[in-house]
Design a protein that fits this description.
Helix 2 runs parallel beside helix 3 (60-70), helix 3 (60-70) packs across helix 4 (85-96) and helix 4 (85-96) packs antiparallel against helix 7. The protein has helices spanning 2-9, 35-44, 60-70, 85-96, 100-106, 135-141, 146-160; strands at 13-17, 28-31, 52-57, 75-79, 109-118, 123-132. The protein starts with a helix and ends with a helix. The strands form two sheets. The protein has a four-stranded parallel sheet with strand order 2-1-3-4, with helices on both faces. The protein has a two-stranded antiparallel ribbon with strand order 5-6. Strand 5 (109-118) and strand 6 form a beta hairpin. The protein is globular and about 40 Å long. Helices cover 43% and strands 25% of the residues. The longest helix has 15 residues, at 146-160. The protein is α/β, with parallel strands linked by helices. 20% of the residues are buried.
């Protein structure tokens, strides 16, 4: 994903990783050795004025910083453990304490990958799904009760596959 962004967009892309697992040409990678250094680096990213930010695993400490970065117009790419695209919003709400309305404002697209067993070929293969929130969908979500928001998100996830 990052290689595609670097090649196609020719934008400044900065990542914060603990540790850097793979060197990627054209990507400014910040290698952190502790959780505190990781959190400080995520918070300090705005001073570097990147177009895209890659935050490895989003945690309770980095999630709020990531949301603040998106509110400045920067694109944030990150990973997060959740059970579906729609459940990403529940997980983000758990770790940030933000309302669904605030999260919907910050998120444009969620990609989800599940590894499923292919019994016929005796292997594990990825199954991908996507949930895209354009302005029309965001408008439909604003102000809805939590359960109704999740129902709509799950419905859209199924239709976007």
């Amino acid at each position: 994903c990052l290689n595609s962004v670097i090649k196609a967009k020719r934008r400044k892309v900065v990542s914060v990783e603990m540790p850097v697992e793979q060197l990627l040409p054209g990507l400014e990678q910040i290698d952190c050795t502790s959780a505190d250094e990781y959190d400080e680096s995520v918070t300090a990213l705005l001073r570097q004025n990147p177009d895209y930010v890659y935050i490895t695993e989003m945690s309770e400490k980095t999630a709020n910083s990531a949301i603040r970065i998106t509110n400045t117009g920067k694109v944030v790419i990150s990973t997060l453990h959740a059970n579906s695209c729609a459940d990403t919003f529940s997980r983000l709400q758990d770790i940030t304490g933000l309302s669904i309305d605030k999260l919907v404002q910050a998120v444009r697209c969620v990609l989800y990958q599940a590894l499923v067993r292919d019994e016929e070929h005796d292997r594990v293969v990825p199954r991908n799904s996507m949930l895209y929130l354009d302005d029309n969908r965001k408008q439909q979500l604003y102000g809805l009760p939590y359960g109704e928001s999740l129902r709509l998100l799950k419905e859209w996830e199924e239709s976007d596959e």
